[in-house]
């Protein structure tokens, strides 16, 4: 299908993009990698009157490692996978990127675009939750930072205001005694997560002193698994502890059912993939 007519702008700075958002209000949509918005427009599911293409804003691209890891919102999956510094300090990002779509998607799709779109089956939201990322946004009132745990509000909905632009994602590098992993059951055609789980573990000697779990694909939005995290704390991270904790995965979640997987199947897979992600994270934390 041919999308309806729209006005097109290609700003070259964050300030210009924010000004355009303010001018056009709800009629405007941001175009980053385009893998979500453009198909929706072609199918008639989205019909923005104004398209603001931010791909010419150079300051939104790139990775800076200086204490924290700052990734510009327009940084592509391919650039993340190929960045040597990220391989050293946050290898889980490369691991996750390798599971996203195909080569064309990874060359064009962006981290910031995926987070702003907040597809319930996307991989990036679970990672930001498990890694306790901070999401930096700019608007007419200036800059603010949103914790990942507060960012995803509902299906395809976030805490990002209509006149704000997501500009960067901030992670903390992993250190000694810390490990993270991402595993998923991918849809065989799209490679979106039918269920995906990201896990972070910190060990204090032989015991778990911190744990974070992010689940995607199972519900209307990516969610932390507080019951699992509490069950892991203070334990030795052994097989018995993993089995007991993972049984609590999905508790309190409104699990979705669709043509790809029933609610019961997804609920079972949340437990299975939580255990796998935790086991991998613990192994990496032990070195």
Short account of what is shown:
The chain is an alpha+beta fold. The protein is built from twelve helices and 14 strands.
Order of SSEs: EHEHEEEHHHHHHEEHEEEEEEEHHH
Helix content, binned percent: 25-40%
SS elements, strand count: 14
Q: Please state the second-level CATH architecture of the largest domain.
A: 2-Layer Sandwich
Distance between the termini: 52 Å
CATH topology of the largest domain: Uridine Diphospho-n-acetylenolpyruvylglucosamine Reductase, domain 3
- Largest sheet, strands/sense/barrel: 5 strands, antiparallel
Oligomer: single chain
Total of domains: 3
Radius of gyration: 19 Å
Identify the strand order in the major beta sheet: 4-5-10-6-7
Low-confidence stretches: none
Q: State which percent range the strand residues make up.
A: 25-35%
What is the CATH C level class of the largest domain, in words? Alpha Beta
> Helix/strand/pairing class, anyone?
alpha+beta
What is the count of helical runs? 12
Mean pLDDT score, rounded?
96
From the spread of the alpha carbons, the general shape counts as globular
Structure description:
The protein folds into 3 domains: 7-53, 2-Layer Sandwich (Uridine Diphospho-n-acetylenolpyruvylglucosamine Reductase, domain 2), CATH 3.30.43; 58-171, 2-Layer Sandwich (Uridine Diphospho-n-acetylenolpyruvylglucosamine Reductase, domain 3); 178-286, CO dehydrogenase flavoprotein, C-terminal domain (Enolase-like, domain 1, 2-Layer Sandwich). The protein is 34% helix and 27% strand. The protein has helices spanning 14-24, 37-42, 77-82, 84-89, 91-97, 103-108, 111-117, 124-130, 148-151, 226-232, 239-246, 263-286; strands at residues 7-9, 28-31, 50-53, 63-66, 68-72, 134-139, 142-147, 152-154, 157-158, 165-171, 178-186, 193-204, 207-216, 223-224. The longest helix is centred in the C-terminal third of the chain and has 24 residues, at 263-286. It is globular. The model has no long low-confidence stretch (mean pLDDT 96).
